[in-house]
Write a structure and sequence with these properties.
Layout: H1 16-29, H2 33-44, H3 46-59, H4 68-72, H5 81-125, H6 128-149, H7 162-177, H8 181-197, H9 203-212, H10 218-221, H11 225-232, H12 236-249, H13 253-259, H14 266-277, H15 283-295, H16 302-307, H17 310-323, H18 328-343, H19 345-353, H20 355-368, H21 375-388, H22 394-399, H23 402-414, H24 421-437, H25 440-443, H26 448-454, H27 458-468
Length: about 475
């Protein structure tokens, strides 16, 4: 019968001096001082050194009787099944990645051919607008081409130069004066392409540069005429372009302050109006919701949301999603916005005065707990309910059987079956959330700690977060049409 070490290859064994060093290190760590002293003395002796040398020569040829310690130092350790599968998956991903890159290169080849064809038609048409449009196409194509060349890695080493920013702003105003809608769309999309192309860690600085250059001419004029006129133009492509850029700017608190300069909420009002005009789940609606969710971190915008009936609109959107498929981004950002709106002192005071409306909101949110809604939306609903579990709403809580229904939900949710590990984690998160927010001491209507938490300055927390975190996420959707 072969020994336990018969799998050890007959190739050169691990360096014995290295193994000796590991043994000595172990003996020192374990305070085996006498053993260490004897071991070092034996290694130094000429007789033992010769024995070791002979043994090393033998071990180069014979591996069956090698000690198990050698097994730990083998350079060709057997790979686990998981490692082998991961390697296979990695190869498959790399293959698909290369296929996508190749498809991208082919698309650019076709695009370049089309541009050349348009250039040949330009001379015949003698249209100045066509020439400018072609130049803009070439600029954008060049930017996307860099992404393909870099195999998807953003260049991101520098921001848009002052000159480029100024040129974009000048072109944007000229196209606006000339009522050239396609030209405005090109410039707005070009600015956004720059934003998407830049490295994540530099995006915050890019937003600050857009503000510093007063891209919408808000601070220079102390008016919102230009951006309001752009938002009022009834062109779907233009609305997509302008809302996507506003979403970029609203990604920081400073950007929200720029868009609400001097406390003027006209842009927020226009975005709400456009939001409600859009088909549910559309790309433009997603950008509108992204803007409103980001802006909701600033308490001064909340009255605008309340008076423009955003609470009712969001609740209706979640209701519709139960029987109609609506893009998860819309539901996630809408419900997050609802949570931000309800938690503010302004909204809580408003609901306290509007008792009937507060009852309707509470009742509908409680109903959502049993409906088939996305887990992220469910979490936002629970957060909204936690903000309403206050002594000021004791009457509504009693009428809606608030405490009983929360308890029933926890019992029901505790026994639901989960299909996979991710679903199990979601389930645990929801139950942990309930345990934290609806703890027995809170259901007794002693909410002093909750009130204190809610009254913390949201904007201060956001500023602190922005200072610590360098990366922003700019929305980009696969079904966008540029």
């Amino acid at each position: 019968m072969k020994s336990a070490n018969s799998n050890l290859p007959n190739s050169i064994q691990p360096d014995q001096n290295e193994i000796n060093e590991y043994i000595k290190e172990y003996l020192r760590y374990s305070s085996f001082s006498n053993t260490l002293e004897c071991f070092e003395a034996e290694i130094k002796s000429k007789q033992v050194s010769n024995k070791m040398l002979n043994k090393q020569q033998q071990s180069k040829q014979i591996g069956d009787d090698a000690p198990r310690l050698f097994q730990l130092f083998k350079s060709d350790n057997t790979k686990t099944k998981r490692e082998i599968n991961l390697e296979k998956e990695q190869k498959a991903f790399n293959k698909k990645y290369q296929q996508i890159l190749q498809a991208g290169r082919q698309i650019f080849s076709v695009s370049i051919n089309l541009l050349q064809l348009l250039h040949s038609l330009k001379e015949t048409a003698k249209n100045e607008n066509l020439s400018e449009t072609l130049e803009n196409y070439k600029i954008q194509l060049g930017k996307y081409h860099k992404v393909i060349i870099n195999e998807g890695k953003p260049e991101g080493t520098e921001l848009i130069t002052e000159q480029v920013m100024h040129e974009h702003k000048t072109k944007l105003f000229k196209n606006f004066q000339d009522k050239h809608v396609d030209g405005m769309i090109e410039v707005l999309l070009s600015l956004r392409v720059n934003a998407l192309q830049i490295a994540p860690e530099l995006r915050k600085n890019l937003v600050y540069e857009l503000i510093r250059n007063d891209v919408f001419n808000i601070e220079a004029t102390e008016k919102f005429d230009f951006v309001v006129h752009l938002l009022d133009i009834n062109n779907q492509s233009l609305r997509h372009a302008i809302t996507s850029l506003i979403s970029v700017i609203s990604s920081t608190l400073r950007g929200v302050e720029y868009l609400t300069y001097n406390g003027n909420m006209i842009i927020i009002e226009k975005i709400i109006k456009i939001l409600k005009e859009q088909e549910n789940g559309s790309v433009t609606q997603r950008f509108c919701l992204a803007i409103l969710q980001k802006a909701s971190i600033k308490d001064t915008v909340i009255p605008t949301y309340v008076h423009n009936e955003m609470i009712q609109w969001i609740i209706q959107l979640i209701q519709k999603s139960i029987n109609t498929k609506i893009h998860i981004f819309c539901l996630d950002f809408a419900s997050a916005t609802l949570a931000n709106v309800i938690h503010t002192p302004y909204t809580l005071q408003y609901l306290e005065k509007q008792g009937k409306f507060a009852h309707q909101v509470m009742e509908q949110l409680l109903k959502f707990m049993k409906d088939q809604i996305q887990v992220s939306v469910l979490m936002h609903v629970l957060i909204c309910l936690s903000y309403l579990s206050k002594e000021n709403f004791a009457k509504q809580m009693e009428e809606c059987r608030f405490v009983e229904r929360i308890s029933e939900f926890v019992e029901y949710y505790s026994v639901i079956n989960t299909e996979n590990e991710a679903a199990e984690i979601d389930k645990k998160t929801v139950l942990d959330l309930c345990a934290h927010m609806f703890h027995p001491k809170d259901t007794s209507l002693d909410n002093s700690e909750t009130v204190e938490l809610n009254e913390l300055k949201t904007e201060d927390r956001i500023r602190e977060y922005e200072n610590e975190q360098g990366e922003l996420i700019f929305e980009c959707f696969q079904d966008e049409v540029s």
